[in-house]
Design goal:
With 237 residues, the chain is of the alpha+beta class. The chain is built from 12 helices and 7 strands.
Length: 237
């Protein structure tokens, strides 16, 4: 995996611009890996996909992630700052299972972790949650829906445990009302926002340098950020 900079950053943004939310995350990984297809990445578990996205974010934009969220108690906009490395250490240390098998209510169940392919398949379903459970679960019964309904509490509990590594949860305190908030970081959405912002910034820099010096887009994108920033400073003075 390599960082999304220069041409790779623009490629990830262009390829993901017209994609769905789920497709954009995999597009970024496909571009960063080069040799891995988006179809292959579809079958990563959500936990594994998010680990890869966190690593890509650290490579591309650094370890510190800053953002802003509303306090659930008083609606104050609260700035937060978290370390990608600390989050990765916690997720890497968490126990992971590739499957769950159990027997209850005379049924034998087997379940696998959810993937991006699963999420994409249930997006337009009438009941996405139930459809996702059905896709990830096998039951030794002719009437799968009846078995899932009869044992729903256990099935949901097993699903949550099996996909626990997909939750990138962190805590922040509101300075206005002192409430402590627990929230999940949607790294797929967050990283795409950063990619889009960085790509448009770079393209503005290309425009400015091309206008000032007549350089091609390829030559400007080939420069490292420090050199490009210095030329921009000189061009704008």
């Amino acid at each position: 995996m390599g960082p999304l900079r220069g041409e790779l950053l623009i490629e990830a943004w262009e390829r993901g611009a017209n994609g769905t939310y789920l497709e954009r995350a995999l597009t970024a990984l496909a571009v960063a890996y080069g040799g891995r297809s988006q179809d292959e990445l579809l079958d990563l578990s959500i936990a594994d996909r998010d680990l890869e996205l966190l690593r890509l974010r650290r490579l591309t934009f650094g370890d510190t992630l800053r953002g802003c969220l509303p306090c659930g108690a008083c609606a104050t906009r609260v700035e937060f700052e978290i370390s990608i490395s600390s989050m990765l250490d916690r997720l890497d240390a968490a126990p992971r299972r590739s499957a769950a098998i159990w027997r209850t209510e005379c049924f034998e169940f087997s379940m696998r972790p959810a993937t991006t392919r699963d999420l994409a398949a249930v997006t337009s379903a009438a009941d996405p949650r139930r459809s996702l459970l059905a896709r990830c679960t096998d039951v030794d019964s002719r009437d799968v829906d009846a078995a899932l309904s009869r044992c729903e509490d256990v099935v949901v509990e097993q699903f949550n445990q099996l996909n626990e590594g997909a939750e990138t949860r962190f805590t922040f305190a509101c300075p206005a009302c002192t409430a402590v908030e627990h929230t999940d970081l949607d790294i797929a959405r967050f990283l795409w926002i950063e990619i889009r912002h960085a790509a448009t910034t770079v393209l503005r820099e290309v425009h400015d340098l091309a206008s000032a010096y007549g350089w091609s887009e390829a030559s400007v994108l080939a420069m490292n950020g420090a050199r490009r920033a210095l030329y921009l400073e000189m061009a704008r003075t």
